[in-house]
Specification:
heterodimer, A: 552 residues, alpha+beta, Sulfite Reductase Hemoprotein, domain 2, Sulfite Reductase Hemoprotein, domain 1, 6-stranded mixed β-sheet, 5-stranded antiparallel β-sheet, 37% helix, 18% strand, globular, B: 183 residues, alpha/beta, TIM Barrel, 8-stranded mixed β-sheet, 8 strands, disordered C terminus
Chain lengths: 552, 183
């Protein structure tokens, strides 16, 4: 956990006071909706189809139990009893009333939470591996760097009105669990030949109307230079990014139009003038921020305790859950537990206030008071003793978040779509719900193996459809919802954009198409353990296209 | 359009001169970038204070040789959402050491005041009269800042260090003098 100090708390409190004044000016008519819009957006408040939506930042996806309880309270007191976790590791409430927003924000501020940097043309919530500090393949905790950058870009006087939003992710493991390469800017930690740790810098990734995988512009950046380099990239973008067309305003277009090399050169020139200035990070500044992260006092335990083996032997459901939802922890005797928020017929990422309260209690009892939010819209308890797994499973199972479908076909990433969002062309949630019904049989889902479905309700791609193994994009044709299907995308260290398989299909046929694709995969795979994504890579999309369109 | 300069609503002593209009003698004037660059040496040699209105899509590095003789640089926010001039302002103050009046023009609204001051502006042509009246309140909304800047307020990460550490001292020096005293 990162512990806020008095200075951090003061800033959040001042933010609430400022926003209370802005809401009062709006309600009194002193501000028009047009003038109020950018102000509310700077606090994560959107106007959606039915109501205001409040997006709360969860920096690098780390939550304390007290924060999760407060999120439950806000869901109950100001919303309809639930919240929605997003692909930016944030939470959204979809039914907030304008006049109650300042109170909701004041409640959140009491646990250090806020909506700053969750909307507007600013640096958004900085994301990272949800397994930060517990993954066995990690070099160092990436959250320290996410926090260093988060502080620097919060209410930044130069970068609060950039051409467009700016998303940064930080990774520190060999395996990329943070979808680094689809970010405006990504920092991947490496160890160089001299044994020092530093960052590879990538820029210009992004999905939406024009999708790009990020390109490396700096193979190795020393830690002391992280802030000055981020500043140089942002300054270059702020000055030269396009502002004539909202669809061409992201940094990916600038990088593409200039070319990555020319862009890197601009940044380098800028960076040379500022790298030894006040943004250079001295050891003591880094150490000060690192010292605000608190790590659990783990017990000395052995891996694979006998009571775990016994419980797995005696209960098949528990055994299946351990096999699916429990991952290796870097500390012996502990485990990382993923909580699936993808029940049959549910909305991906939704959690009720009651579930949040139970999860917060479980975190206190079994996970050193800590919860993580992943970009796949699931939660995790990051520090569970392996001997406690049976008890944790029973408690999670009782509230419906122990479904052993993590990374399977029903573990769907979906945006809110036309059920909530004013930008959407088509619904996302009911498509996800129908797919979870079709594949409710866990043996079937397990047989299909690792398979990521991503659904977006419009070209803005909040559901990351380009990088789904199966990507589903809602479009509108003559007032009706149609869906384009792509195959072969992925968001990991080998990030690839999916390939369109053919004409869009109507709403009612999407789940059938997914079933056809699944059936084709089972026929096409060379071995039962050839993953879907590997089969698509080997065969190309052609055999899938034939299967899907033969009967249509 | 009220002018707020160093925290106070003041009369604007500068006259804006259109591209083809004659430049009045002995009066502080603001000319466009084109006119200034066409005749920079002669204009800079005038007795009365000279200002230049600089577009937000032109590098301020071009102004560098003349900054010592310019009394004012006016930067432009065509829309408050178009934030290019924030970068120009910081470059003028922090890289090129401009010490004259740095003026924000265009759509300049209350909720941008604090960002503007922290980016190095010390005078604002404020779009709405009521906003100008609220200047003092608008720039004292916050007492905590995460970034170093030329307004003299120390960034949080330095405030957390004991004052005798070399890093804290170095930043205070490098961000230069205070251009604006918040009231």
């Amino acid at each position: 956990m990162y512990l806020y100090d008095e200075l951090d708390r003061t800033l959040v409190g001042e933010r609430v006071a400022e926003f209370r004044g802005q809401v009062a000016r709006r309600l009194s008519g002193e501000l028009t909706e047009d003038e109020f819009k950018p102000l509310r957006l700077m606090n994560g408040v959107y106007l959606q189809l039915h109501a205001y939506m409040l997006r709360i930042s969860i920096p690098y996806g780390t939550l304390s139990s007290a924060q999760l309880r407060m999120l439950a309270h806000v869901a109950r007191r100001y919303d309809r009893g639930y919240g929605h976790f997003t692909t930016r590791q944030n939470i959204q409430y979809h039914w907030i009333k304008l006049e109650e927003l300042p109170d909701a924000m004041a409640d959140l501020a009491s646990v250090g939470m806020h909506g700053m940097q969750t909307s507007g043309n600013v640096v958004r919530n900085i994301t990272t591996d949800q397994w930060a500090s517990v993954a066995p393949d990690e070099i160092e905790d990436p959250r320290i760097w996410a926090e260093v950058i988060r502080q620097h870009v919060t209410l930044h006087p130069e970068f609060s009105f950039m051409p467009r939003k700016f998303k940064i992710a930080v990774g520190s493991s060999r395996h990329d669990r943070a979808a680094l390469r689809i970010h405006d800017m990504a920092l991947q930690m490496h160890r160089n030949g001299a044994g020092e740790t530093g960052f590879e810098v990538m820029v210009g990734g992004g999905l939406g109307r024009t999708a790009f995988i990020a390109k490396t512009i700096k193979p190795f950046l020393h830690k002391r230079d992280v802030l000055s380099y981020v500043e140089a990239v942002l300054r270059t973008y702020n000055q030269f990014g396009r502002r004539d067309n909202i669809y061409k305003a992201r940094i990916k277009i600038l990088v593409h139009e200039l070319g990555a090399e020319a862009f890197a050169k601009e940044v380098e020139t800028e960076w040379q003038s500022i790298k030894d200035g006040p943004l250079a990070l001295d050891e003591e500044v880094i150490a000060d921020i690192a010292s605000r992260f608190r790590y659990p006092a783990y017990a000395r335990l052995d891996d694979s305790p006998p009571e775990l083996a016994e419980a797995r032997r005696s209960d098949r459901r528990f055994d299946a859950w351990v096999g699916n939802s429990v991952a290796k922890h870097k500390v012996p005797g502990y485990a990382i537990v993923t909580l699936s928020l993808k029940p049959e017929g549910g909305t991906p990422g939704d959690v009720t206030a009651e579930q949040m309260d139970v999860i917060a209690d479980l975190a206190d009892r079994y996970s050193f008071g800590e919860i993580r939010v992943g970009h796949e819209q699931n939660l995790a308890l990051p520090h569970v003793a392996q001997r406690d797994l049976p008890a944790v499973w029973r408690a999670l199972d009782a509230i419906g978040v122990a479904i052993p479908n993590v990374n399977l076909i029903t573990d769907i990433i979906a945006c809110p779509g036309l059920d909530y969002c004013s930008l959407a062309n088509a619904r996302s949630i009911p498509i996800a719900q129908e797919i979870t019904r079709r594949f409710r049989n866990l043996d079937l889902a397990r047989d299909l193996g690792r398979l990521h479905i991503n659904i977006s309700g419009c070209i803005n791609a909040c559901g990351h459809h380009h990088v789904g193994h199966i990507g589903i994009l809602g479009v509108e044709k003559n007032g009706e919802e149609f869906y384009q299907i792509t195959l072969g995308g992925k968001a990991d260290e080998h990030a690839t954009l999916g390939t369109l398989i053919g004409p869009a299909v109507p709403y009612a046929q999407v789940a059938d198409v997914v079933e056809d694709i699944a059936a084709a995969y089972i026929e096409l795979r060379e071995r039962p353990d050839e993953l879907f994504i590997d089969t698509v890579k080997r065969t190309g999309v052609e055999p899938f296209r034939e299967r899907v369109y033969a009967a249509r | 359009m009220p002018l707020v300069k160093q925290g106070h609503i003041v009369e604007d002593v500068f006259v804006r001169v259109l591209d083809d209009a004659p430049i009045p003698d002995g009066v502080p004037v603001i000319v466009t970038a084109e006119r200034f660059l066409a005749d920079a040496a002669e204009l800079a040699a005038r007795e009365a204070p000279l200002g230049v209105l600089w577009p937000n899509n032109r590098k301020v590095a071009e102004l560098e040789p003349w900054l010592g003789r310019l009394a004012l640089v006016a930067l432009i926010f065509p829309k408050f959402r178009d934030g290019r001039a924030y970068s120009q302002a910081r470059l003028l103050r922090e890289r090129y050491g401009f010490r004259g009046e740095l003026r924000a023009t265009g759509e300049v609204l209350r909720d941008q005041f604090l960002f503007l001051i922290r980016a190095g502006f010390d005078s604002l042509e404020v779009t709405k009269a009521a906003d100008a009246e609220a200047f003092a309140a608008a720039v004292s909304t916050y007492s905590v800042f995460y970034q170093p800047s030329t307004d003299g307020r120390l960034a949080v990460r330095r405030r957390r260090l004991p004052p005798q550490t070399p890093a804290a001292g170095r930043e205070a020096q490098e961000t230069g003098q205070r251009h604006f005293e918040p009231r």
